[in-house]
Amino acid sequence: MLVAPSVLSADFGNLARDVRAICDAGCDLVHVDVMDGHFVPNLTIGPVVVSAIAAAATKPLDIHLMVENNTFFVDLFAPLKPEFITFHIEEEKHPHRLIQYIRSLRIRPGIVLNPHTPAEAVEYLLGDVDMVLVMSVNPGFGGQKFIPTIIEKIQRLKVLRDRINPDCLIEIDGGVGSSNIHELKDVGVDVCVAGSYVFGQEDYKAAIKSLKI
Length: 213
Ligand code: DX5
Ligand code: ZN
Prior knowledge:
The chain has a single domain (2-211), classed as TIM Barrel (Alpha-Beta Barrel). The protein is built from 8 helices and 8 strands. The protein has helices at residues 15-24, 47-56, 70-77, 95-104, 150-164, 181-187, 196-199, 204-211; strands at residues 2-5, 30-35, 61-66, 84-88, 108-113, 131-135, 169-173, 191-194. The longest helix has 15 residues, at 150-164. The site of D-xylitol-5-phosphate (DX5) has 22 residues, from strand 2, strand 8 and helix 7.
């Protein structure tokens, strides 16, 4: 299991310190939640702050866009050379085109599914993405409770993934911690995002280790 702590739960007054700390503690990716106040009812950070995160990070960035007008934001963040940019299928008229565009920028593209969106929605995109991010809470805020029906969706997605593109990673985001990580691993999750769980503990190294199963 790869571990991607979400900096949404970091101390924004000491952001560089916290980003360095999770990298030193052994995370695999730094998950960055970009919200525009339109697609979701919350507003987070733009390229100025994300470039400070990129400068502090010694691990690759995993940028999760929760925005309207995805292409505008892809162009804003591409110069920071993230490993992944993921965007929501619900907010994109031409997801296939945007996936090709992200890849043309030498960034690995991923697609995100809200809790109500079926796994089958990505069937004809799976061959072109490097990651599918399954939301296990409604996007917008950290610290929410895991939605249990998402387990079945991951099982369906895994069947499609194994058939169409076994190299594509399945990432889960929302309400993840040591209490459900084993179940998530068992159904085929490859990458976990964890915000409040990791940053809520004093020892980041132990927190990350408990998710790396
Ligand atoms: C929610 C974000 C998540 C969030 C996860 O919209 O996409 O990345 O930070 O927070 P936890 O792990 O606390 O549920
Ligand atoms: Zn996220």
